[in-house]
Design goal:
Chain lengths: ~140, ~140
DNA sequence: CATGATCATGGAAACCGTTGTCAATTTCAA
DNA sequence: TTGAAATTGACAACGGTTTCCATGATCATG
């Protein structure tokens, strides 16, 4: 019963709780870094619960659609990370791919101010910081 | 001699001022929207100054490297737009691809505050607003 | 339990934006 | 003018992602 929460989350996302999907979602839990479909496929390949590459791609896309994952663009490919429901921004380490969530009142106010000043109808915005996390910077 | 400025800009970027490169850079002048390599290649195909697709790709990449262009990521591909030298953010219309530059003191302060608070070594940041420009919103 | 109807899986092939290859051409300093 | 070095462009290759489709799992319903 170690994946009761996982199955629940999948069902809430409107997805059947298959072995593959719970495996993918479980692999994401507690992981501080964003990971790509290919990387995840590689990691699962070794374990007793492999998941087809196509299925990993599909599952990550579905979970991101459902708002359970954030898509973190990386050089030429796309990485994913479990995220909270609420709107947030990111602190992204380019060395270890760790992603921390940030709330940013000043950014939200900036967006509103700019939009109303220029008659712009906002559908979304993005504000992320790239660099080296404390651990990576020290080495 | 209508492209004296263009040639000059190319040379400053460390690139020879060939017909193809001046054509590409001229096509970008005065254009309010970001455009992809394929789109630009298509537009130039009709004119008397066509440029090979590979060359368009290479030229846009070089100009972006030189800091003359901003790369604006679009669904699965990359669009480019002439930009100013100084650091700035973007107001991006998803309908007409118009891109306006924004300066944002609040954002810069936010980045510094977050970084110093979490011992993060910043190498870059991004803050862009997506939606519909005044013209597109009204239709 | 059947028993279909629907959804999910995964290997292989296709897709598509982009980059590499390389012979022919152009640029530019001397 | 001239030759070394840079540039061009048709074409092939690349790599992440998606599509195909035959097989297998899931889930109502009787
Ligand atoms: Zn790190
Ligand atoms: Zn925000
Ligand atoms: Zn617009
Ligand atoms: Zn900034």
């Amino acid at each position: 019963m170690r994946d009761a929460v996982t199955s629940e989350a999948l069902r809430e996302a409107g997805l059947r709780a298959t072995r593959q999907r719970t495996t993918v979602l479980d692999a994401l839990r507690g992981r501080p870094d964003a990971i790509t479909a290919q990387e995840l496929h590689g990691e699962l390949r070794g374990t007793g619960e492999p998941v087809g590459l196509t299925t990993v791609y599909r599952t990550l896309a579905s979970l991101a659609d459902a708002g359970l994952l954030d898509a973190i663009p990386r050089e030429g490919e796309q990485a994913f990370r479990l995220c909270s429901d609420d709107h947030h921004h990111h602190l992204i380490c380019e060395a270890c791919n760790r992603v921390d969530e940030l709330t940013a009142e000043e950014v939200e106010r900036w967006v509103d101010a700019v939009a109303s000043r220029r008659g712009f109808r906002v559908t979304g915005h993005r504000a992320d910081i790239f660099g080296l996390c404390a651990a990576c910077a020290r080495s």
